[in-house]
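Continuing the series of single-chain predictions for the mutant panel. This is the parent chain; the variants come on the following pages.
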Amino acid sequence: MSFEYTPDQKKVIETRGKDILVSAAAGSGKTAVLVERIAQMVCDETKPVDIDRLLVVTFTNAAAGEMRERIGEAIQKRIDENPDSKHLARQAVLLHNAKICTLDSFCSNVLRNNFNDVDAEPSYRTPDNAEIILMQQDVLSEMLEDCFGETDEEKKRTFLDCVEFFSPEVNENKLEEIILSLYKVSQSAPFPDKWLSKWESEPIPETLEELEKTPFMKSFLDIVRESLEYVSSLYKDARTLVESPDGPAVYGDLIDNEADVIESLLKKNSYSELFKAIGTISYDRLPACKDETVNPDKKEMVKSLRESAKKQIKTLTEKYLKTSEDVLLYREQTCMKAIRGMIGLARVFTERYEAYKKDRNIMEFSDVAHAALKILVSGIDEKGDPIPTATAIELSSKFDEILVDEYQDTNYIQEYILRALSKDKDKNHLFMVGDVKQSIYKFRKARPELFIEKYDSFREGGPDKERIDLQKNFRSRGEVLKITNDIFSRIMDRSYGGIDYDEEASLNEGAKYQESKDVTPEFLITCPDEESDKDVREVEAELIADKILSMVGKFKVWDKNEEVMRPCKYKDIVILFRKADWGNILSPIFEEKGIPLYAENTVGFYETSEVRDVLQFLRVIDNPTRDVAMFGSLKSRFGGFDDEEIARIRVISGDKTKSNLYDDLHNAINNDCIDSILQEKIQKFLQSLQLYRELSKHVPVRELLNKIFDDYCYLEYVSALPSGARRLANARLLLAKAGDFEKTSFHGLFHFVRYIEQLEKHEADEGEAGLNDENADVVRIMTIHKSKGLEFPVTFIGGLTGKFNDMDAVNSFVCDDDLGLGTMYIDVANRFKAGSIHRNVISAKLRKDSRAEELRVLYVAMTRAKEKLIMTAALKKREDLLSLIKAILGIRNLDTWRLPKFMLDCDSYLQYIMKALIRHPAIESLLDELEINRDTVKNIPCPYAFCNDESEDDIKFGIVTEDDMTVSEGARIAKKEFTKDSLMLGVGLDGYDLRYYDNVMTNFKFVYPHENLKELFTKTSVSELKMAALAEDGEPVKELFNEEEIKPYIPGFKREKTEVSGTTRGSAFHKLMELVDISKYTEGRMDKEEGRRELIKDMDNFVEEDLMTREYADAVIPDKILEFFGSDLAIRMGKAQKKGLLYREQPFVYGIAANLIRPEFPEDEKILIQGIIDAFFIEDDRIILMDYKTDVINSEAELKERYKIQLDYYKAALEKGREIPVAQTYIYSFHFGSQIECC
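Parent structure:
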């Protein structure tokens, strides 16, 4: 595939003397063209330009480095052709100092050379994100503390009003969030103070007429009109179905009447008119449709369309037309006044924060950009153009042309700087290249509308400007381009995506590939017939893994270096996801299937045990009273305590509500209840902790970490664990982060703990340390954003069912660069909140902008594929896919497809793709598999339906079941693995490395020398001991513990219901006996009916208080419980309860010599026995022990014998722990309704 410049590319390379906008489609070779343009400019024999007189702006540092390297190669190639050229030799030297950089780097250079203009220090330092968070938190905390302590009554009242309105729960975190959001939005504006002033000085309307004239109310009318047009279109679709030959004609009149109401609403042009009219809407029931000739699918579609229309009207009413005119005016006035107060707080924060950073000589990237703007721009003229300063004029004279890559991702600050430097059209010009369809950085305040404005204004060209379109794609096979065009020509337009995806915007095939099999794009969907408990993301990961295994070594890709088709390797494959957390899902599944993986971007670093344990220990060193951290540290490598030891330490504390684990550790050292071995262990831990606490006051965090790692051999320890290499890399990465922290303005362990907590809180998790080399033969996972600018032979796009993130749009306080600020209305006096139109309008715009950006993100993902594109989606059940498709099939009206509202309702990429392809011929195979009549699609009049250039071979749809994946996995294992028996026999070993065969066989034949001790355990339960003893006596052990339920008579009409298991009923009885007030029922004042009612009431209360589940409450048989309350044993328990001497569900642990359990065990070994005693009470300074049983058994004697061992251990544990004799032991059998004395 040799490369030759197209006429359009040549035009881009050779056009001079004017501003140029290049709209470069994905894969159009824009970088190569840009490099060639620069090379020709600096190597021109007639009008040569020195390379250092060009300003080349890229989006990333990596792109700048690549650009510099490629320009250098182009210059060197010309030097090789003309070695005597002094001009070319000069360019090679000048290249090292040429301005090829990001705009951030350029702004930094401007600031350092002109720092006096803005009263800055040239030696400033740029903080990382975590340090920024800490600084902001410190400034905010101090500021709010000062505000609460304000002595000026007027200022304090203003502040408290803000607190009450924006944070009625007195939650300072909410207040901080709003202040920070205001600060961040203002900082994205070229002139933050002016931006805040604009909204602070916005007039508060006094009348409804004045409110109607505000910009956001005009946007409100646009939103209402857009929604009503969509509803109107839905009714037209319904009318089309009703009028079809086999349609439900009986619905016609009702559909027409409701459609007429919507048409009348479309004629309303004010809030008052709309509010009055929409309140009169009512819906009658659809008439019965018993005509057997009516198509049932069409009947259901009409109902579905009508329900969708009703839902749209309901949503519109709830969000925008719910309140009367006077209430609306009052609420908007109240919100605007509250916002003014919040802007005042944002101003105070901005001033304090800027002063805080100035004192520490710190400047964020936004600070540097604003400083550069101030140096280069003195103001904005009436036309909206920047007025360059003398510095800008002088600097611009040093450049003959300014070339900007990825222009679609610039913002207004950068735009003003670029325009200030290119003001003199006679001396320098702007060359801008980009693709608005790939503008995916709105969250970084990129403004794609800047590109769109020039895209339109440069269309006609002229003497001073020209637009050149590069449409040919030299990256992808025609099959990839075809399906990409098919999808985006249907769903991307000017109102939804920023540009009309027409002939000018579509991708044209430029690459020439050899013919190859199976290059058709695929869409694989997994959706079980019934909803499964299995995580759908894991199912999708297995689907992707199986597909990869089926392709590697078989699917052919083009090797451009060797210029041949070769079998696909792992490194040819990338898997793209919208979110970064998929690496944690895929990694274990791919590892199990033997697929090497490189996660380009993932999460989970702070959640790994090797990192979490260290951070917990650092938190304890900083503050040992943090119980959660202390518990984690005690159980970790640094403590070495088990659950039982921690429980014993905790049990000895007095008032558990006032003590903490740190106090308990100190109290346990000299406590007689704690054995000497455990006391020594506690003493050692506390001494180490104290040592580290003293050390943390004097040494840097990294040095402290190194000391801890050395003392506990921690790096060696984590290396020896499963996946040791990755764990070791994570531990070392934590050390590196400690080193990064020491470069910040914060110091000490306390601030490091905060530093890490802020990283976790604000989701700044950068993922685990990577082990695989990204250049090795591995499959790569990366986010779609990370993949921008890259290309891959085989591209998977996964996670297509993931919901879009609407967090910015659903916040109670919302900000927008153009529409300003909006907030929920808070009625402080009555403590309720409601939406406001201003806030809802801004929210709608944010949601629309977000949806448009998600569409562009999908475009970026699909255009990464060179030869094979595979999209995957996983749904919980088949019905979800059916519902989605049937909802789309109901849309019959051509206009509906062109309405932005039709696309705004999408909340996942799957919905985008299905709406685009539902009328594509390839959908037929999917419809057949889902048993949907394909004629339902063919009969829909649509300009996109089965166009002449579309074929069912454009894309393959497939539903993959778990059975399919199981069969695939089984076949793989059958080919790859052999059994231990075959290894022992020495058969089936052909093709395997036998160098270690003898060692393996030696290990297999090894005999453990202490076979008699293999069943020796350190801890067991009473139940296990009982089971073992009975097994030795030949008792049917398994039947013993599967207690039969006490079966009451079940009426015939209820016998079809699922019966309660014996285990469940036994647990339910025990739970009730733990909770119920026994003394209330044993005083003899209630008859049986009254007792039953009271018991049922008690159980309902337990359920309501989450003390007991409803399943347990339903499993209890009240008469059996009441029968117990009448026993002598229950009466004695009730009396003990009133004296505070009844104890229920009491856990215990005690140790005995091992030989008492089994004679063959050594006497010097101790075994810990644990259990839970149902109940005991103290009577006359003696213990009365009892146990509840629900077993259905032949006789009381058999029950007594069955549980003798268990009760013996209970008795021994109580006498040892309480130092009081057990006088009597009882079993109460709910089956027999009697108490059985055992001793």
